[in-house]
Amino acid sequence: MAKFSTLCALCVTLLLPAVASAAALDDYYLSKFAQQVHSVKAVSSVSQSQTVKVERCRTPLYRELKRDWKQLESSTKKALASYLTRPSLPYVCNPVGGHFSIHYSTTGANAVDTTDANGNGVPDWVETVAGVFEYVYDIEINKMGYKAPPGIRYDIYLADLVAESVYGYTQNDNIGVTATSYPSYIIIDRSFTSRLYVDQPGGPYDAKTSLRITAAHEFHHAIQFAYNAYFNMIFAEMTSTWMEDEVYDSGNQLYTYIDDYLPDASSIPLNAQAVGNSKYGRWVFNRYIAETQGSRTAIRSVWKEIGDQPVPAGATSVNDGIDVPLVPVLDTVLKGNLGNNFFGFAKRMLLQNWLSHVGDIARIPTIAPAQTFTGSGSIQAPSFNLPSGYTFAVYKYQPSLPSGSLQINFATLPASIAVAAEKVNSLGVTEYPYNASSQSVTVPSFEAGDVVYLVICNNSNGDMGSPVVVTPAFPVDESLVSDGVTLSTDGLALDANRLTVPVQQSSSTSGGGSSGGGCFIATAAYGSYLHPKVAELRQFRDRHLLTNAPGRLFVSLYYRLSPPIAEIIAEHEWMKGGVRVMLVPVVLSVEHPAGALMTVLLLMGGAGIARRRKLALVRVRR
Q: Where residue 189 falls among pLDDT bands split at 50, 70, 90?
């Protein structure tokens, strides 16, 4: 329905009224920051059976606001200027011998609980905050050996963040202590007592638990700015989220974020820029690296390598939107074996053979197979579409005969594709690698009770990777069915007409790799690759167009024709507004496919009635 309604919406675009809107970037940031009334209403009206999802961290949003600042209208800048300055709070707690200054208020919207059981003039909650951050400092700096943020004391601000629906965030100051190392400050919610925080998935969470995991998360952002403020934001969130469980193993909220990444691991690259909450769910790759490298110091080595990088070429300011590329850094630390490590990570997500935090393994979701097959003997490999590097998919095989073997045959595979079969039965797990000579994976014994999982990874190098679409070694025919091979009816039928769609490098404002790139015209019209409407269109492309032959043909033609058009649009403000108006029905149909289809049907019905009336009038006149 989504594909049909979108195509219909394209057909009726010119029939809809066109009203130009304000600049898209302005709309985006105003909706993100100036939403107190809406957020408060959402919180007050939520029922026991509903949960308003809280943002883990708004550090990426603030970073992008600074980078897009020059493109915003003066009225927008005026409205949002206060968000980019340190809060002004009347009181500050400086514990003797501590590393933090805790800023707070006892009146107004930002007021903390003023209970002072020990009568020392400082609210107990403020002292709790100071104690938690000191513990985090001791673990992350003294025990784990990370670089401390510059300055004698680090500033923590307690503010009401319920209206913003976020736990906290970290912002860098505008002047660095070196060309790449910057001081920063942290703002967290004043109490974490709102139901907004208590009732999050995996909860309920008490205030101290929310404080602990937020402190562990945000303070590592402070560390990251100290290493190199040009860091890749995705790896920054992966590390800060991973750090929550390394500092406070009992919090366990980070496990709930994996479901925001794993179901889309075949379309969201490991190093892709922000795609919903998937950036938090990708923290689990850090755990894999720490386990396989023998120590969690491997993650510190990545940050040390980032810290050793100079200001990226072409960057004149930390707000230029040019970051240190992530993939070369990871590959350096992993001694040129990033691809093998990602392949191993994919297999571990399937097999769940984790080596650390073993008591929490059940909290890590397993990846669901893209397709399930029943068959034995020599069969063809499934078609698969891995649009970018560092993506993976899993396929499940069950035997159709009591005993026999299984040989999965491939067409020629690109060097970037890694393939292996994992046979699982009561005896354990046995791996069977891909044989390049025979272009197949062979499981010599495939019997009742066995299950084979085929793991396929695109390990393309570079920050963007390459799209890989592979067709079966030979077409589906009746001989396969007679051999006992059947395909599960999950709507993913094999297609021998797959096209390889080129992936284009995104603009510098994306800060690195992306989930497939492209969307040139929408990016030019909305002013940023990160605009939520552009993200929705990219997601629609990956999930609904690149998964079928007509859709891939459309995308292929679009990639050939759209870049020069996008360049012209980007150079003319009046064109941007017009194109945004033309994209309205397309975006609406992606967001609300049922409504778009109903609109199309009503328009078609209205047109049919008008046509019949016209014919009737013609007959009367005759």
A: very high
Give the Cα separation of 158 and 426 in Å (integer). Answer: 54
- The candidate with the shortest Cα–Cα distance to 347, out of 457, 256, 260, 272, is 457
Residues 280 and 259 sit within 8 Å (Cβ to Cβ): no
Calpha distance 468→457 (Å, rounded)? 10
Q: What is the DSSP string of 468-487?
A: EEE-BSS---HHHHHTT-EE
522 near 583, Cβ under 8 Å? yes
- CA distances (Å), 151 to each of 144, 184, 226, 327, 416, in order? 20, 10, 10, 31, 45
- In this predicted model, what pLDDT tens digit does every residue of 422-464 receive, in sequence order? 999 999 999 999 999 999 999 999 999 999 999 999 998 644 3
Interior angle at CA 409, CA 407 and CA 410, nearest 5 = 155
* Residue 36: predicted pLDDT: 43
Q: Which residue has the tokens 């020392």?
A: 120
One-letter amino acid for residue 488 of the chain? S
Angle at 344 between CA 339 and CA 349, to 5 degrees: 125
pTM comes to 0.73
Q: What is the phi-psi region of residue 402: left when phi exceeds 0, alpha when psi lies from -120 to 50, beta otherwise? A: alpha
Residues 6+ away with beta carbon under 8 Å from 463: 271, 325, 326, 327, 328, 512, 513
What is the set of domains in the chain, with CATH numbers? 2-11+518-598 (no CATH), 35-231 (no CATH), 371-487 (2.60.120)
| Contact status, residue 187 vs residue 169, Cβ threshold 8 Å | yes
Strand residues in 269-383 grouped as ranges (E): 371-374, 377-380
| Interacting residues of 414 by C-beta distance below 8 A, sequence separation 6+ | 466, 468
What is the C-alpha end-to-end distance of the chain, expressed in Å? 43
Q: How many CB atoms lie within 10 A of CB 310?
A: 11
User: Does residue 362 sit in helix, strand or coil?
Assistant: helix
Give me the helix-helix angle, 326-333 and 297-307, nearest 10°.
Answer: 130
Helical H segments across 1-86, by residue range: 2-11, 24-33, 36-45, 59-68, 74-80
* CB-based contact 390:460 (threshold 8 Å): yes
Is 487 buried (19+), middle (13-18) or exposed (0-12) by CB count in 10 A?
A: middle
Q: How far is CA 11 from CA 15, 547, 604, in A?
A: 9, 22, 11
Q: Report yes or no: 377 and 404 within 8 Å, Cβ to Cβ.
A: yes
Q: CA-CA distance, 106 to 91, in Å (whole number)?
A: 8
Write out pLDDT tens, residues 332-375: 999 999 999 999 999 999 999 999 999 999 999 999 999 999 99
Query: Are the CB atoms for 552 and 498 separated by under 8 Å?
Result: yes
Distance between CA 234 and CA 425 in Å, rounded?
A: 37
